[in-house]
Amino acid sequence: MIHNAQLIKQGAEAKVYLAPFCQRQAIIKERFAKAYRHPTLDKKLTSRRVVQEARCLNRCQKALIDTPTVYMVDLENSLIYMEYIEGISVREFLVTAEGETPEAQSRVAKEIGTALGKMHNIEVVHGDLTTSNLMMRKETGGSVVLIDFGLSYVSNLIEDKAVDLYVLERAFTSTHPNTEVMFAQILEAYGESSKAAKLILKKLEDVRMRGRKRSMLG
Fold this sequence. Notes:
Blueprint: E1 6-10, E2 14-21, E3 24-31, H1 39-62, E4 70-74, E5 79-83, E6 87-89, H2 90-93, H3 102-121, E7 124-125, E8 134-137, E9 143-146, E10 153-154, H4 158-175, H5 180-193, H6 197-217
Antiparallel strand pairs: 1-2, 2-3, 3-5, 4-5, 6-8, 7-10, 8-9
Helix pairs in contact: 3-5, 4-6
């Protein structure tokens, strides 16, 4: 049991708590056991995921990509203690009056694209890019922070990075109407910061084609 913890989110893989840690508010992410798996195998897989998430976050931090700082990893209890980001998600931002202005969208798009390009340069694939997993820091006037690396992994495959971008594009088109220009600006900034942008953006076209075919076939 986590002391003085407040459950703020529960997903299919983990529970996320807000709790005091070392005289500050922290996010504590708990990966829970899967009853359908053999306990020994489950423990091994869960530990591997916890380590993988923490390593990807640390890798991003070293590359000066804004992500939550990892304070502590408790492998025995499958917990990651990390920085609490005060602010709003890009999803929330886009429904505010400011978030609907072309100037604000352009600024945020540039930050998102630049951050994703840098992340892919160090071979980190996020695995779950949505506008809910992009936060805007309150104390820095709304600079973009990448969060929730629960499905992240290390890969140098062009395909994996293209799929990462495609997942975000789908999140934009399904949740935020009239943001085509903003997503194009994200890709433009990505093109400037990603070392393999030409190959990745070309592969994104292929991934889109496959996605459309799947939609047509139901």
